[in-house]
Amino acid sequence: KLFFTDYGNAAKVERCDMDGMNRTWIVDSQIEQPTALALDLINKYVYWVDIYLDSVEVVDYQGMKRHTITKGRQIRHLHGLAVFENYLYTVNSDNLSILQINRYNGTDIQSLARLDNAKEIRVYQKRTQTAVRSHACEVDPYGMPGGCSHICLLSINYKARTCRCRTGFILGSDGRSCK
Fold first, then answer.
1. What is the CATH number of domain 131-178?
2. pLDDT tens-place string over residues 21-63
3. What Gene Ontology cellular component terms go with this record (predicted)?
4. Where are the domains of the chain?
5. Rounded to whole angstroms, how far apart are CA atoms 38 and 53?
């Protein structure tokens, strides 16, 4: 799945399959400017920062169990968001500090370090990296990913795929080759 935020005409947090199909709004009320998003891949939660409402909130992958982690002026300048164990990590662009927020007790916020011009933060941890298994977009004997002549996108699961074409090409009737 792909998770993303949008604060165009109607602010929301959404999810879809990797090929863009099955687009679903998981948060579409009491939300204004969701800017940063992070996933708890193990427990299947979506965290986001709303810089207009000055809040950090969470829902599960289906948009249920929503609650506010923390709210207040300190949220106004947050960029980037990452989850690791019991904490959320983010960058405060106002004072260029990395903040650690206890995701179970939002009042426990600590400044860890200062960085020049940081806008994003990522945490890489072995436990959250999924094991590599065969999937529908593996390169075939002819060197084409998933048998697609241009682009292969995983679909509803790792066994299904959708072929797409680069700009200026159209997908042929076989659903694999681009012309």
1. 2.10.25.10
2. 999 999 999 999 998 999 998 899 999 999 899 999 999 999 9
3. plasma membrane
4. 2-127, 131-178
5. 18
